[in-house]
Amino acid sequence: MVSGQSLTLINRVIYLVSYFQIIGGQALKDGDLPWLVHLYIVHDGQISYCTGSVVSPNYILTAKHCAIFSSLEFILISYGSANRKNMVSQTSAITFTPNSTTLGVLGTSIEFTGNVNPICLSRNLRPKIGDKAIVAGFGLNFQGVNNGAKNPGDEVNPTDMITDLPDDLYAVKVDITEDDLCTCHCDKPEDSLGIKNVTEMCAGGLLEGTLGGDSGGPLMILDQNSKQWFQVGITSRGQTYATNNTSEVVDHGVYTDISKFCDWIETTTNKEVICYP
Prior knowledge:
single chain; mainly beta; Thrombin, subunit H; 2 domains; 7-stranded antiparallel β-sheet; 2 helices; 17 strands; Trypsin_dom
């Protein structure tokens, strides 16, 4: 279970994400979400960025597309701070991946402190439609829509956005929504990135969502009984839509349901990582 989560810290994070978003907003501080990691991925002669989460001293959890490449050279895993410039790093080239989930194996065990700690997993804590969850990442920050005004409901591609890449960790509260909202109304139906099966869920809304670099990050809820944070999903993909205000967009994101992979996680880690009931 996650240790060292004081009620003061829990209340601070809930307060922050009630007002600030990954899509524009204010950074979190060291220790706010101490399981977040930044991934610097060298592959196929390119560099990519993702987010992940610490789930034990030797394993991190992220998305499949953050680790599956024709030629993966290594992944630099950074942790221990809410600012990328202040993080501790180590490399890993060993990953285990089924379907939409990847476990990265750390070369050196993490020593837990107030600034780096694992998040809990659960077999049964799947949020319902209308519930609130929190998503966080080290990805791009939305600043506005460029290339002229778009009609409300039009798809907004990454090239249509004004973004920056902050060093800090950002988080946002998102609504769990109907799966139909994650069906992409794309120009080409074959480009649809909607819900594929029961291992996924949909979340987001107005100024509620993720961008490039947030992939692999955790979708989290606070269990009211134990006052512990649980990761219930992994940021996978999504679609962003215009409003009548170029400083606002609507995001509908697809998240992998971790509870559907608990058996695989426990078996792969030899039960170093446990999904609680």
